[in-house]
Amino acid sequence: MKIVEMEVSQREGVRNKSALEQLRKEGKIPAVLYGGQENINFHVDEVKFGKLLAQSEVFMINLNFGDKTVKSVVREVQYHPVTDRPIHIDFMEVFDDKPITIGVPVRFTGNSIGVMNGGQRREKMRKLILKALPQDIPEEFVVDVTEMRIGDVIQVENVAREGIEFLDHPKAVIVSVKTSRNVVEETLEDDEDEDGDESAEGTEETAAAAEGAEAKTEEAPAE
To answer: What does the alpha-carbon distance between residue 101 and residue 12 come to, in Å, rounded to a whole number?
Structure first.
């Protein structure tokens, strides 16, 4: 898992609403760290944290308080309902010998055979929930769909890794390739063309037989 360093400033005590709003006006986001011996209130730079949010990978953040550094992961981010700016962050302290539960993003690669044959790729899961020690957690899961044909699926159990406990159901579908409408329509059109050819051949055979019957009637002598 990627490790990111971040300088933070601790804030003593519980500030009132106006004080927290003032922090936000100064470009700082109030935050809290929990999971250790005690909760720690602090704030982070909004611009720097925004760059972390823009990344899709999972990362561990070393929170540098000046006199000490604490390993952590982001547990929750609260956003303003109108501006969509982050207004509060929950960090959880992590320890090398204690497993943590976290969501890891899924990235799909390759052009599947099924899609090139007219099928449709359906991405069911963009994040997998797992439990593992920090050093065993990947930044992302890369799922290669190149060999997938129409009707194929990749499930959670297909991306199993040693040292990782997946909390999603093992049979949960991550990605599938289904028959698209275009494939169905083309198949129906082909069947109609074949039926049409057979009907035409039958009509021609019937007409030829009728002409032969008329010719024999004309050649027969009158009594």
So the answer is: 29
Angstrom CA distances, 11 to 32, 78, 122, stand at 10, 19, 46
Domain that holds residue 21: 2-94
Residue 94, classed as helix, strand or coil, is coil
The count of structural domains within the chain is: 2
Tell me, yes or no, whether 10 and 89 share the same domain. yes
220 domain-assigned: no
Task: Indicate left, alpha or beta for 59 from its phi (over 0: left) and psi (-120 to 50: alpha).
Answer: beta
- What would the pLDDT profile of 168-190 be if each residue is shown by its tens digit? 999 999 999 998 765 544 444 44
- In this structure, what CATH number is given to the domain that contains residue 127? 2.170.120.20
The 10s digit of each residue's pLDDT in 88-122 is 999 999 999 999 999 999 999 999 999 999 999 99
